[in-house]
Structures are given as structure tokens and as C-alpha cells.
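Phospholipid/cholesterol/gamma-HCH transport system ATP-binding protein
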Amino acid sequence: MEKEKLHKEPKTKDKEQSPIIEIKDLHKTFGKDNKVLKGVNLTLNKGEDLVVLGRSGSGKSVTIKCIVGLIEPDKGEIKVFNENVLHISKKELNEIRVKIGFLFQSGALYDSMSVRENLAFTLTKHKRDLSPEEIENEVMEALENVGLADAIDKMPSELSGGMRKRIGLARTLILKPEIILYDEPTTGLDTITSREISELILDIKHKQKTSSIIITHDMACAKLTSDRIIVLKDGVIHAEGTYEELEKDEDEWVRSFFE
């Protein structure tokens, strides 16, 4: 528990500061009648780790995919860095996307590329003017940040599930994003590895000064990483608070996540 004390920062917020992400009245329906989001409202403040809980199919992943334009909502407003991303040009959206890291459940590595090539490809795609030496330095720094510098020449098939998550995170970090969206970062991992990933999320927040939205079913991860938690139910925000507050919530359905 000492690690938790070391890395968690005071939960203070400048009331005059605009949220780094602000979502208002977000709706999304798939097909004719599969209404997944029915008016989601949420904010992410600078320097905050926000955990999103909800049953499968409640719209957690759909919400964060809307933020980066992977899914287009039917209705609503999404502001990132005070820009409405639903009403800007593709060029402007891509400029914002570079500042947002997205860690997919699988890690989403290219299986035909080594770890070095996976990271270098992401870097050169967005920063074309770097020299080979600069690219190598950036790759090594990203791998050192996740504790896997010695895996630089491995192929994804040689990595364990936990290592793939870490490499996926290194690839996300290499562009030095201001926001990171984590989609089930500990899914499929054993208890020890899951805690290591959760602690790594805290380390990154501390070192890189990131703001994050963390989608998870893992309550140990939620407890360790969250500054604030929101709970999705039936396409809307059903509850909001700290882990300790929601654990004692009068709503039996909310408390069921913590049992």
C-alpha cells in the first residue's frame, strides 16, 4: 500500500479551470433499436484519473471511442481541450488525436513487427523529421518508462499478456500524450500482473502528468488508480463519486460492484 500513498496526488481541482474533456448529452444507437448511449454527461479534469464502471454493453468503450472519432455519435457534444471534436476538420481532429493516447484491450501491436519497429512506426507516422538516432532514443525512453527496455528486439508473439499490455502502453506514451484512454487495461491478466499494470498507470500519471479515463471491470484497478469513479447504467451516468463513497452508496446496484 506504500506505492499507493507514494503516487496518488491530492484530489484538488482549480474551480476556474475548464475540464480537459467535457461530454454533454451523448447518444448512440446501433441498428434500429439498440440504444447504447442515452444522454451521457461526463467531465475529465486536468491531472485526474477517472474510472468508468458498468456492466457489459453499458456503453463504456463506445463513449471513449466517440472521444477520438472511432465511433460517430448520433447526438451530443464532445469537447477536448475546449474544442468540439464533432464540428472540426479532419486535420484539426488529427492534431488533437496526437495528444490522446488510446490503449486498446489487446494492446493492438502489429504482429509482423518487432517491438522496436512497432514503436518506431508510430513515432515516424506523426513525427517525420526525426533522425534514426532520435527515433532510437525515443523508443528506448518509452520502453524504459514501462520497464521493458530489454524486450526491444522481441516479436509480439514472444511476449506474455502483461508484456503486450506494457508494450502497447509504451507505444501510446511515445507521442507524449496529455490524455490517455485505457480500455480494460488489466483484462485477461493474473492478479499480480494486473496490479503491476495498475501501478504503472499511476507511475505514468506521476511522471508524465497525464489525465486519463480508465474503463475497467477490475475493482482492484479501480480502487488503486481512481481519483473519481462514474457508473454507467442503461446508457446514462447512474452514480458518481470516489471509490470509498460509492462503496457505501445507498443504491444496492451500485454497491454490487464493490462486493
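thats it. Strands lie at 21-30, 34-44, 49-53, 75-80, 83-84, 100-103, 179-183, 211-215, 228-233, 236-241. The chain has a mean pLDDT of 88. bye
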